[in-house]
Amino acid sequence: MNRESSETPAGSATVSDQGVLLIVAGYAVAFAVFGLAVSGPSESVQGLFEILTTRDALITDYFGIGGIGAAFLNAGLLTLIACFFYYKSGAKMTGAAVACLFLVLGFALFGKNLLNVWPIVVGVWLYARFRREPFATHINTAFFGVALAPIVSEVLFSTTLRPVVTVPLAIVTGLLIGFILPPAAAQLFRAHMGFCLYNMGFTAGLIGVLVVALYKSYGFVPDPVFVWTTGNTGILGPFLAVIFASMIALGLWFDRQAFKGVGQLLRLSGQAQTDFIAVAGIGPTLVNMALSGIVGMTYILLVGGDLNGPVVGALLSIVGFAAFGKHPRNITPVMIGVLLASVAKPLDPAGPMLLLAALFGTTLAPTAGRFGWHWGIVAGFIHASAVQTVGQLHAGLNLYNNGFAAGIVASVLVPVIIAIQSRTQPDRMPPGQSGVETAAMEKAAAEAATDR
């Protein structure tokens, strides 16, 4: 790993890549300890076995499979192992890396587990070897790409095939998926131009459609899954409040002017690739992560939603990407758009589909940040409908279903917005674009080119 300290703005504490990684690992440990405290070691380990041997297509709340303790233990352990891979590979702990690891932590509550992710990770590693490039260059793709881990479980635990067939088939399928993810993701990024932060969700959705279509042609049709628990808000709410409070405390410890740095972040559109750690430093980024999480939590409570595996996972996706594009100013309009859609349909905003759409739909935050809050509301409104349809295409085997839907929405909506603004405001740069943001994006691109 690069042991040199990351560049940070004046007044911010200098934090090395290893230091940032230790912060993420600390939260992973907190999740594992919380799980053991809630359910006890024996019950947690037994529940973990249940999680590892279950089909886990969307939506499979691990709370309902192995219990809260087992789900949190799975999340903590898997994230710690991922942190170890980041450490050994020497990967830079950018905002994207932090977002990736928090996504692992969140989705390990409802789809990713200690068993099903590794064929895909190894597949990406094989691609790096094939390209004669360091694995560190593609490690984010590897751990973002385990969105398709349910495909491995679906094949591995198929009741229509014998184990002598399912084991090698699951491994080979995962390896192939991992191998094609990097080039596919690089190409598909151009479609939405960074206005969908979950580019891997868009990519995984399209790959998932192809895999499901292929298997269906051979008569292998995945059965739908729906496991959704309620009644856990009383115990999970205080835990998450402590997590967010600790982020603010850490942020202020690293940088006493952290809230001033957050103000700088609020002026950015968040369009990928914008690394908030590079722009403002780790202190303001941690505070922004906490504040964004609080906004998400507030929305959940206001609409009467429950905290469970998928909802906490969605909340952590907001927190993680608050290091790489999201902040309270650009996520709120998207949430409002989804809420308005629930009123117009009418649909229950606290129902599983709409609640997750509001939280995960913040992947479209750069639309609000770049073009204005009103376009963010439009994006959220459209996303609320799109996400209810596209899941059928990949049979729930892409965990980032909202990323898939949002990629489609952004790919269509953004060119329309640009066309409208070019007509009405021909001489004006779209709002939200700033010199510091452009510089950060150019720096990230230059570093990526150097790594290659």
Overview of this protein structure:
- This protein has 452 residues and is mainly α.
- 70% of the residues lie in helices and 0% in strands.
- It has 21 helices and no strands.
- The protein has helices at 17-39, 41-52, 62-65, 68-89, 95-107, 118-131, 135-144, 149-156, 163-192, 199-217, 233-254, 258-266, 276-280, 282-303, 309-321, 328-344, 352-360, 365-371, 373-390, 401-424, 435-451.
- It starts with 16 loop residues before the first helix and ends with a helix.
Assign a percent range to the helix content. Answer: over 70%
Give the beta-strand count.
0
Total DSSP helices:
21
Major sheet description: none
Could you write a compact summary of the structure shown?
The chain is 70% helix and 0% strand. Residues 1-7, 429-436 and 438-452 have low confidence and may be disordered.
Helix and strand topology:
Elements: H1 17-39, H2 41-52, H3 62-65, H4 68-89, H5 95-107, H6 118-131, H7 135-144, H8 149-156, H9 163-192, H10 199-217, H11 233-254, H12 258-266, H13 276-280, H14 282-303, H15 309-321, H16 328-344, H17 352-360, H18 365-371, H19 373-390, H20 401-424, H21 435-451
Helix pairs in contact: 1-2, 1-4, 1-5, 2-4, 4-5, 4-7, 5-15, 6-7, 6-9, 8-9, 9-10, 10-20, 11-14, 12-14, 14-15, 14-16, 15-17, 16-17, 16-18, 16-19, 17-19, 18-19, 19-20
